Amino acid sequence: QKEVEQDPGPLSVPEGAIVSLNCTYSNSAFQYFMWYRQYSRKGPELLMYTYSSGNKEDGRFTAQVDKSSKYISLFIRDSQPSDSATYLCAMSVVTGANNLFFGTGTRLTVIP
Amino acid sequence: GAGVSQSPRYKVAKRGQDVALRCDPISGHVSLFWYQQALGQGPEFLTYFQNEAQLDKSGLPSDRFFAERPEGSVSTLKIQRTQQEDSAVYLCASSLDLEESQDTQYFGPGTRLTVL
């Protein structure tokens, strides 16, 4: 069993829809949680970074962490065709110089 | 300034050949990471450098994989006697190595290796 599980999708939604992406994990030592966006043939770019449990909002994006359930979510409001990409959750035990554990990635397509 | 760059972007090798993949991190970044991303999968950690010191190589899949960062900046990932299962995108990331608050890893575009 992988330490981080993520539904690979693919997920297709109409423009303007609310998108919900989720990951579960097994290692209770994870404290830092990230969402990366990866366009085709590009490297991952950081979208959201959250420490421990709670919510964080940045524009149309909201990240939620529930450590008691070992479950994290990313919500995208008013989705746009430019949001079409693969979304990767990632987590680490400590911040700083520490390798990240990634989910499989969910491929999202927003249809105009 | 420039982001993380990697070269070559694409590499085709015949099984058994040796390959060398280069990573130029963001200037001033102390930490450098290599990840392997198989098709349809998330990146998986290979190895980590702090300046020129390789502090963690627990993710290297076999002794055919070797990484170095001799002057604490550019890094090279070498794969000897390539096998078909080595086909993947190899991602390099760098970070400032901040001890407090958020420390972001910035990724390069990757090198797509295909072993025939």
Task: Write structural notes for this entry.
The complex is a heterodimer of chains A (112) and B (116). Chain A is mainly β. Chain A has strands spanning 4-6, 11-14, 19-25, 32-38, 45-51, 54-58, 61-66, 71-76, 85-92, 101-102, 106-111. In chain A, strands 2, 4, 5, 9, 10 and 11 form a 6-stranded mixed sheet that branches. In chain A, strands 1-3-8-7-6 form a 5-stranded antiparallel sheet, with no helix packed on it. In chain A, strand 6 (54-58) and strand 7 form a beta hairpin. The model of chain A has no long low-confidence stretch (mean pLDDT 92). In chain B, the strands form 2 sheets. In chain B, strands 2, 4, 5, 6, 9, 10 and 11 form a 7-stranded mixed sheet that branches. In chain B, a hairpin with a 2-residue loop joins strand 5 and strand 6 (53-56). Chain B is globular and about 40 Å long. The interface between A and B is medium-sized, with 24 and 34 residues.
User: Low-confidence spans of chain A: pLDDT under 50, at least 5 residues?
Assistant: none
β-strand number of chain A: 11
**Rg on CA atoms of chain A, Å:** 13 Å
Helix content of chain A: under 10%
How many strand segments of chain B? 11
**Which pair of chains forms the biggest interface, and how many residues does each contribute?**
A-B, 24 and 34 residues
Outline of chain B, from the CA principal axes? globular
Largest sheet of chain B: 7 strands, mixed
Structural class estimated from helices and strands of chain A: mainly beta
Order of helices and strands of chain B: EEEEEEEEEEE
Mean pLDDT of chain B: 93
Structural class label of chain B? mainly beta
Main pleated sheet of chain A = 6 strands, mixed
Concise synopsis of the structure shown:
The complex is a heterodimer of chains A (112) and B (116). Helices cover 0% and strands 54% of the residues of chain A.
